[in-house]
Amino acid sequence: MTIDPSTHRAETSNVPTWCPGCGNFALWSALNHVLAVTNIAPHQAAVVFDIGCSGNGANWVKAYCFHGLHGRAVPLATGIALANHRLKTIVISGDGAAYGEGLGHFLHAIRSNPDLTYIVENNQLYALTKGQASPTSAEGFKTVSTPTGVTDEPLNPIALAISADCSYVARGFAGDLPHLEGLIQGALAHRGFAFIDVFQPCVTFNRLNTFAWFYERIRKLDELGHDPSDRPSAWQRAVSANDDLPIGLFYRAERPTLQDRLPVLRPGPLVDQPLTVDLSRLYEGLS
Amino acid sequence: MERQKNTFSWKIGGEAGFGIMASGTIFAKTCLRAGLQIFDYSEYPSLIRGGHNTYQVYVAPQPVRAWRAAVNILVALNRETVDQHLAEVSPGGAVVFDPGEYSFRDFRPAALGRDDIRWHPVSLGQISVDHGGELYMRNTVALGATFALLSVNFSFPAAVVKDLFMAKGQAVVDLNLALLRAGYQAIDSEAARHFPWDLDPLPSPEPPLYLAGNEAIALGALQAGCKFYAAYPMTPSSTILHFLAEHGPTYGMVVRHAEDEIGVINETIGAAYAGVRAMCGTAGGGFSLMTEAVGLAGMTEVGVVIIEAQRGGPSTGLPTWTEQADLRQVLHASQGDFLKIVLAPGDVEECFELTQLAFDLAERYQTPIIIMTDKYLAESHVGVPRFRTVLPVDRGLVRRSEELPPGDRFRRYDPAADGVAPRTLPGTPGGLFVANSDEHDRYGFSEEGVANRLAQMNRRARKEAMVLRGLPHPTLVGPAKADLTIVSWGSTKGVVSEARAILTQRYHLQTNHLHLWLVNPFPATAVDTLLSRARTTVMVEGNQSGQMAGWIRQHTGRQFDHHLRQYDGRPFEPEKLAGQLQALIR
Fold first, then answer.
1. Dist. CA A21–CA A1, nearest whole Å
2. What's the number of domains chain B is made of?
3. Does B527 touch chain A if contact means CB atoms closer than 8 Å?
4. Distance CA B438, CA B33 (A)
5. CA-to-CA distance for B403 and A98, rounded, in angstroms?
6. Minimum distance, in Å, between the CA of residue A58 and any CA atom of chain B
7. So what's the ipTM on this one?
8. Is the CB of B210 less than 8 angstroms away from the CB of A286?
9. Residues 15 to 54 of A: which have CB under 8 A from any B CB?
10. Tens digit of pLDDT per residue, chain A (287 long)?
11. Structural domains in chain A, sorted by start
């Protein structure tokens, strides 16, 4: 697939500062393209970025972008999605923010199921702070913060999301753009909290999990005959001990969204509701 | 002894879980409906069951602005209440107790050395059981007994009990009324006739609202059109969450009990950025967690309202007690220089009015607004007339699509703006910008250059003078010439006014009072001028280190002649404070 330049929403005056060959370019392209082909106008999207290399993308996406705090992009986005549920709300985070500093928010967002898309650019280390280990770094991986190798087991975000009954769980790969676009398109169409973990090699600091390393291990779930409505099967594939790394849609379920559960939002977005209130009936009950 | 009409202090004590709070509410509401004024105050440990709870209500015909420590009528549901609080009972005071209650076995009042006390043994538990109740419902019987001693018509407490239990069904109402009546009838008319205090209903045109600071803040938020409230439970802020969770949705509000205080404030910032008036609330510990995001709101210029209800610190500290020791943590919250507007309401009315004002300030100046209360203000109830003050809503500078110049990107952070730059709401065509926690240029793009940094820092800093220009100056209450000028901030306002009244009435001493409700930006010129005219000054504040005294000195160079500080978890008390102030004048 080639990208029509007219649909590309990059700022011409503002050039990304990512390293040449960085996996972040792939997600950037995929997101821009999906927003264009799904006819989501720039002003209709709120894209909340975390801190880090992924977070710097706030400067290069044409939308209402919010560059928030490390680990806190999900609650920030939840507030936006509750205040104006007509916006398409998307969160872009890195693995350090999503699975380290902000892990608690991730699990609770899965529980409350706000209608938003959560994309984690997982390069298995901290890149912007110059290459320290992250929660998804392999055990034994040597970095400046772990010179004798990582002592902890890596977190399995896909298994974690499936175990918590996340309503859309997918994994993409920065080396397969059309496939990644399909997952993003599916996430944006999904009603509820749609989570995509993206293998996104860091070409500067990660000499282990390189593009070549991934190409050898990537397997596509749809080619393996996986049924994303089958949660036990999704779990099996997420925790499989062999060296294959499945990508694609692991699990999808229809669950009421946070917005669905709030009758207050039925008349329309909060942001459109009148500010004037008459409290006299409330006062009657307070004497 | 002459019977005192309508001015007395009543206190009930017992084990947590034995209906102490409910009893206090019924007593206070009955007094309000009888046309009197009240100020209540409760003490309770951080426990669900067990532990010692008290609830006291000071009653008077005129507006009451503070609690009173002295107790005229003590209802002791257990022996511990007598042991802990007998010393508070005024000479000639009364104690109602249950001789049949387990802890009162072998109880001999005569051995306590208080011959002046009127002991009223009433078999509260037995009466409860005899009338179809349980032992633990003795509190309702006790209420009936005290209302009989006060010679108030039974219809007043009965109406309150009926309203309070209506939601639980007619059977519950009937049972509670039966217990209340049984307690009422257990007092013989002779005892009532000789009781030193009387509750004599006054005509009341409109029943006042029974409110604590937290409910007044919640009402202020609803009145201001706040549509989003998030919180994580923490005493003494939780009743804002409870009140808004119950009533907020009726007024179009989304109320979120989020996973933690960090989630709470980030959701609130997200909602405010998207264009709704948004608020969150917490206590000192939760505010510590919110700190980083306070800076995010300052940097991205998203106006949010944050309630910081203080309790005794540091750390978990005194979870259910009062203190004013979070001032510096609030003033200095988050790294870097940026404007936080800090308001400190002094009473329930100010809680309502300043919360409304806070939303206007948040949107007009696009910066975080923190309202500081404490356990004493947040949870003590008073009777207030229905609020009439409705501020006209000012949403600040918001640009709609048709007002924007051509192009997709909007100069949201235009350094040429006079402090506050107009904003657009997400969803507005042609209004794109980046809300950026990094330093940023006029469009919000990350930018670390010197010229831009200085332009943005200086633009944001100009807001401070704008806020001061736009708000009323602090004023002195009392005569311009006085023996003593008393300064306080936040909840201490009412205690100081009551103490001043005592000093005037009892000792003919002239004092005046400066209550600081605007803590930041600090109204330095006005405060300096007022203090320069004072003969003798004293700062009264509820912390150990004199946090406000230091803040005033930083801004005015002025030192106080005297300091009165309290940090034992208990609020200042008018009688005690009056004595301390009197000693300063002599």
1. 19
2. 4
3. no
4. 56
5. 38
6. 7
7. 0.96
8. yes
9. 41-44, 46, 48, 51
10. 344 444 445 554 678 889 999 999 999 999 999 999 999 999 999 999 999 999 999 999 999 999 999 999 999 999 999 999 999 999 999 999 999 999 999 999 999 999 999 999 999 999 999 999 999 999 999 999 999 999 999 999 999 999 999 999 999 999 999 999 999 999 999 999 999 999 999 999 999 999 999 999 999 999 999 999 999 999 999 998 788 999 999 999 999 999 999 999 999 999 999 999 999 999 998 98
11. 19-284 (3.40.50.970)
